[in-house]
Amino acid sequence: MKRILLVEPDAALRAELRRTLETAGYGIDDSDSCADASRWLRRQRTDVLLVGLDDSSDLVPLTRLLESQATPPVLALVTPRSLSLSLALLQRGVRAVLRKPFDLGALESELAGALLPRMWARASPVEFITRDAATLRTLRLAEALATRNTTLVIEGESGTGKTLLAQQVHHASPRDRTFRRIELDAADATRSGLLGAENAGTLLLPAIHRAHAGSQEVLIRWLLRSVEDAGSPAEAPRIVATTFRPLGESVARGELRSDLAHRLGVVTLQLPPLRERLCDLPALIRHFALATGRFSEESIRCSPEALARLAEHPFRGNVRELENRVGRLAALRPEEPVDASLLLEPDPASATRRDSTRRSLRELEREAIERSLARHGNNRTQASRELGISVRTLRNKLQRYGA
After folding, report:
1. Which of 55, 157, 201, 301 has the most beta carbons within 10 angstroms of its beta carbon?
2. Is residue 280 a contact partner of residue 132, using CB atoms and an 8 Å limit?
3. Phi, psi (5° rounding) for residue 160?
């Protein structure tokens, strides 16, 4: 049974929360103060800390608690008017902030995300930061499948974290083998990448919807032979393919062989774009800012006005775009605090009219490449010949565009 330490000064609300959570199957310990909670955490196993706060004065004892000892994931319940308090809590590492009076559905969703087994978190050196309900459902499904040898397809836009999720699945697998990325831009490259791959733990097939026709032929033959050589599917490497669009759509467009799509499409995990998980913006900004090694917790600012502006930005590059914007801010303003309001400032190198024209040319180039690939059945050799560039240059351009 998962145990929750409930800290809420209001006795009536504390009792209601306790009854609700016990009915839902959780073990509950409760307290009316963070000082008392500190003593509980030292002597009692706790999986989630759920703390109620009414105003900014309650932030001081909670901050003291978080700084004084290791804590489990923390969820906070605040009064509806406490927007500034909510932002301060997220900046201090609180996993999620919910409003009083609590919504049971929202609370259960956040608890489910916070209670992803510690094995899943410890197994992977990479971290998928989210409290978005749809993304959490995908992570829970991925976790359940990690110990099985199920073939997976991860579907999502460029920059949503498909490779990151594939790495998490690999590291949570019980088999201690390598993670290998297979290039799919030419038959020879795929054939070379598959040498010795039968001993790998996970094979990542990136952008399967863009796979060269020759690569698909090599891949389907290797998949059939690898199961025969392994003796059973359980001993063969796990296959994880990533794609921008559903496999069925890629088959209909003539990009993907139907037999390969049927073999790969056992289970599909979907990652939503950043514009559909805006609740993750404060935590992601904090994570990327700290990862630069140039900022402290206190120097990261996410005002309500700045977050509102960011919420209106399309983020076509998704999480990767946000990471790049934080990194650019760190490079250009290393001595200043990280202010989310500055993340949408134009890149000085692209602020001129000349660079604006250059961006338009890049868009035209991408469209020309996509049309050429479509005309030649995704054959990169023929498309590169038509475009007057090498296959390697074409591959590099596709990678640059996230295609």
Report:
1. 157
2. yes
3. -85, -10
| Measured distance CA(351)–CA(332) in Å, rounded | 15
Write down the residue that tokens 């999986």 correspond to.
Answer: 47
- Helices within 313-390 (DSSP H only): 318-332, 353-375, 380-387
Q: DSSP code of 262?
A: H
Query: Quick one: 175 and 216 in the same domain?
Result: yes
Q: How many domains does the chain have?
A: 4
Give the Cα separation of 113 and 49 in Å (integer).
13
Q: Give dist(CA 403, CA 401) in Å, integer.
A: 5
3-state secondary structure of 342: helix
Measured CA to CA, the distance from residue 264 to residue 151 in angstroms comes to 6
Note the pLDDT tens digit of each residue in 132-146.
888 888 888 888 888
Tell whether the model's pLDDT for residue 75 goes beyond 80.
yes
Beta-bridged to residue 78, according to DSSP, are: 53, 99
Helices and strands (DSSP H and E) totals, the chain: 18, 12
Quick one: 282 and 188 in the same domain?
Answer: no
Contact between 96 and 75 under an 8 Å Cβ cutoff? The reply is yes
Distance, CA of 389 to CA of 42 (rounded, Å): 64
DSSP secondary structure code for residue 383 in this structure: H
Does residue 337 sit in helix, strand or coil? coil
- Whether 1 shows a pLDDT value over 60: the answer reads yes
Percent of the chain with pLDDT over 90: 26
The predicted-structure confidence for 294-336, as pLDDT tens digits, reads as follows: 777 778 888 888 888 899 999 999 999 999 898 888 888 777 7
Average per-residue pLDDT in the chain? 82
Pick 200 or 215 by higher pLDDT. Answer: 215
CB distance 220 to 184 below 8 Å: no
Beta bridge partners of 6: 30, 50
**140: domain CATH number?**
3.40.50.300
Tokens 């290797």 belong to: 222
Longest dimension (CA), the chain: 74
Give the mean pLDDT of 90-115: 79
